[in-house]
Every structure is written in C-alpha cells, then in structure tokens.
Amino acid sequence: MRDTNEPGGAPDDTRGEAARDEAAVSRFVERFAADLAEAGMQRMAARVFAALLVSDSGALTSAELAERLRISPAAVSGAIRYLSQVDMVVREREPGSRRDRYRLYNEVWYETLTRRDQIVARWESTMRDGAKVLGPGTPAGLRITETADFFEFVQRELPKMLERWRAQQAERRAAEAREAEAG
Known about the structure:
Largest sheet: 3 strands, antiparallel
Helix content: 55-70%
Distance between the termini: 36 Å
Strand content: 5-15%
Structural class: mainly alpha
Radius of gyration: 21 Å
C-alpha cells in the first residue's frame, strides 16, 4: 500500500488554514472540482477530493467534509467510496475514536498516472485486437491501429516522464535541505 500523508509528514498548522480567505478557498475548490468533473470524475467526488487537497493535513472527517462543502454525509460517503475505489484516498480510523478520517495518498498524482499506465496498456491490447477484427486496411481498422499506436507511445513515454518528475522532486528537496542548513 502506498504511503499516506502522516500527521508529521505534512504541515497540519490550523493557524495557516484559519488565516486563509475561506471564500477564496471555497471558490478554488469549486473551480478545481469543476475541472476534474469536466475531465470525467464524478462531480461530488471531485469536490471532496479538492477539499482534501486544500486541507493542510490532507485528511478530514466525514463531518468536516460535509461542513466545508455544505453537503450531506451520504454525499460524502458516496464520494469517498468512489475515491477509494480509484485509489485516490484511504479511509483510516481516528486514534481513540470511532470516527473515520479520509486521507490523500502521498504523491497522489504520480500514483494516479502510474495506474493509468496499466489502463492504457489494457486499452492498447484491446485496440490491437479490434484492428484485427475490423481489418487493418479498412478506415475503421486504420483508426483503431492509430489509437493503439498512440497508447503504445504513451506507455513508452510515461515512465520516462515520471522518472524525470522523481529526479526534479529530489533536486528540489535537496535544495530546500541546503537552504535550511544554511538558513
């Protein structure tokens, strides 16, 4: 299982959240949720994900999500079910409590793209089979073959891109550590 943001791993400074313009934060959450929904994510799941993303801890309870988003607990539950199924959040029990907290995975975008690579591999295989069925010389067969070629290209290039991302993040963290030591 992937790491999640642990309480000590991400800033959990409620003073930072308290100092923010809540109306502006809410507008940002709704705007980003709309972007996610336009890309295909369920609308309520997009709102819940965006709310988790903007919280300093990266984790909120159902009640906190319902209050921040002004939605019902049932809506939170459905959104969390979806987000859990697509491995974007994890449900965990609050220590000493019966309440659940919903936490983002660390590197949620990296992990999401990694899983998408597996899906793209499956799509490529299906397209290759479809091209055979349709006939490689037919207009539909050519279109399906081109789609399979695109998926193959994405699979070949995505790991290289993700590795460059890892290297860039390592360089950034090293620079931050040097600044902290010098500071």
